[in-house]
Amino acid sequence: xxxxxxxxxxxxxxxSKSTTTIVNxxxxxxxxxxxxxxxxxxxxxxxxxxxxxxxxxxxxxLYVEGDSADVIHMKLSPDLxxxxxxxxxxxxxxxxxxxxxxxxxxxQHGVTSARQIEVITExxxxxxxxxxxxxxxxxxxxxxxxxxxSKILARAxxxxxTSKPRGTGLGLAVVKKIVEEHGGRIDIxxxxxxxxxxxxxxxxxxxxxx
Length: 210
Prior knowledge:
Layout: H1 9-40, E1 48-50, H2 52-60, E2 72-76, E3 83-85, H3 87-109, E4 117-127, E5 133-143, H4 150-155, H5 171-181, E6 185-190, E7 197-203
Parallel strand pairs: 2-4
Antiparallel strand pairs: 1-3, 4-5, 5-7, 6-7
């Protein structure tokens, strides 16, 4: 700022471009450091009774405008049982998955109405080791983006595995770590129609009396 008024227009332009590059690179480095810190220092989950639908709805306020132009559409089961979860960590899971889905649909379709992301919750029934039928809460995020390459599918949950030029590859690794802290399961795959990807999370620990 002190130099700009003392420089010629050409030199001021060079200075502006150079400082912008420095600021952007510093921001990128900060994001990388934050990602490394979050992955290395994720504390043990503090599980308390939690309304997963309510948490998703809260996070969605940052992503949706509530009009016909919205890319993200929610289908939340009204019968979803309460889970035992860490609200802070599960917010990070939802954010990470939504950001991945947004990057994918933007890369595939640009900023057009063709972009679609679905956020779905439902009750899932499964059999445990004693062949008892139990219930769980399922969260799925489905997009019509680029999908996962075969290379990424094979290594998706490994730290530093990414197809993004500026990505750290820690997003899904952090998600998997948090889900496992919750005693849950995560699965990623490409859609059967070839139009995008699906990430599904199964949370098995339900709140008492849910």
